[in-house]
Amino acid sequence: MHIAMSAFILDTLAPDLIAAVRAGLPVTAVDDALASGRVTAAELDRLAIPRKTLAHRRAKGRLTPDQSDRLLRVLRIVTEAETAFADRVRAGIWLRRPTTTLGGEAPLDLLDTEIGARQVETLLGRIAHGIAA
């Protein structure tokens, strides 16, 4: 089953999302993420699934539930940044630029943990609502 990543990420209430993550997303989800240009292979290697592991998962055809969850976390935050900034390029720059609000780290670098992702989401919510970040 090929899953349209953008539809799942933008529609967080999609009833199939939990089942898809639990079953493991198809490896093509990684390919779709890379083809979109929203994240690089190096970023996915660091934040969601190491390249060597990805090569192994290609043979199996699916990511593990944990890998699927990490991939969706990264793509969800990228989507939220694009929405907050209403511009894909500006969002990409912001995600990769260190900020004092996040302890001098780039928002994207915090997405390797759920708590880091929540901090980035909180900051994006403030930005989206015009609250000084």
Write the layout of secondary structure elements.
Layout: H1 5-10, H2 15-23, H3 28-36, H4 41-47, H5 51-60, H6 65-85, H7 88-96, H8 114-128
| Rg computed from alpha carbons, rounded to a whole number of angstroms | 15 Å
Percentage of residues in strands: under 5%
What is the rounded distance between the termini?
A: 40 Å
**Structural class, from helix and strand content?**
mainly alpha
Q: Averaging pLDDT over every residue, what do you get?
A: 89
Task: Estimate the helix proportion, in percent.
Answer: 55-70%
Shape: globular
Q: What's the total helix number?
A: 8
The secondary-structure element order is: HHHHHHHH
Protein name: DUF2384 domain-containing protein
Pfam families: Xre-like-HTH, Xre_MbcA_ParS_C
Organism: Neoroseomonas lacus
GO molecular function: DNA binding
How does this structure look, described?
By secondary structure, the protein is mainly α. The protein contains eight helices and no strands. It has one domain (5-128). 65% of the residues lie in helices and 0% in strands. The longest helix has 21 residues, at 65-85. One of its GO terms (molecular function) is DNA binding.
